[in-house]
Amino acid sequence: MTSEILLAEPRGFCAGVDRAIEIVERALQKFGAPIYVRHEIVHNTYVVNDLKAKGAVFIESLDDVPPGATLVFSAHGVPKAVQLDAQARGFQIFDATCPLVTKVHMEVAKLHKEGFEFIMIGHKGHPEVEGTMGQLPNGIHLVEDVADVARVQPAQTDKLAVVTQTTLSVDDAAEIAAAVKARFPNVRPPKQQDICYATQNRQDAVKIMSPQVDIVIVVGSPTSSNSNRLAELARKLGVSSYMIDSADELQSGWFEGKTRVGLTAGASAPEILVNQVIERLRAMGALAVRKMDGITESTKFPLPKGLRADP
User: Could you tell me where in the chain the CATH 3.40.1010.20 domains are found?
Assistant: First the structure.
């Protein structure tokens, strides 16, 4: 392999992931271990293992949290019932839900009071989808693809609104939303696009990068929705693409006959993993690294009260 590595820009951590990890780390510093976290704080194996080593305990059931403990909700958000249950049990709670997910929850609550039902575009079983659908006892109908749109049966169509998971393929979500609009012409679109800025920016960077390379490597964990979408997007654009959790997963056979490698990372993948992949590719014969031009992200979300450095 005598190749150049083309680095996507932007890539890696977004503001919501930065904030979620900092919430757990600050809680550990302030209250000491253990700090309990419902579900993986973000979908990245390296991040979760690093926080485990520092004293975070990841749980799925509130029954596994002892009385009086400090509990953090993951960046994906939680159903309303989990929130209320945790409050009733008296835990000290810090909510690391990404503010862009919280925005969707608030929109759902507001429109529900006005009598709306919802069609949610998302992936069944993903914790963000479970959290958003769990904001209401009923009236949110999940569609995963265009075929689902034909089958969905809301109780009424006069007041119907669309919401989406924030980490979807921008193009796929637009196609499904168009099918919803075609079937329900009066449907209310999201006030602003629900797909988050970081997901959009990383997908746009892959669209620019893919025609310039022979193979795309995406650093991200199998559970990461936005990382999976990056690898899918590159393949749709006709480029071989592989998603890896770490540099150890790189296979030399992937690079036979390839002269230029595109490298990106999902929004929950830390830059240290990208650097390790670059080092491994250099050891395999890569000669140069070139950063693409791209959007510089400056978004930053405030920490919850009780964890801020300022008084």
Answer: 4-13+197-291, 100-183
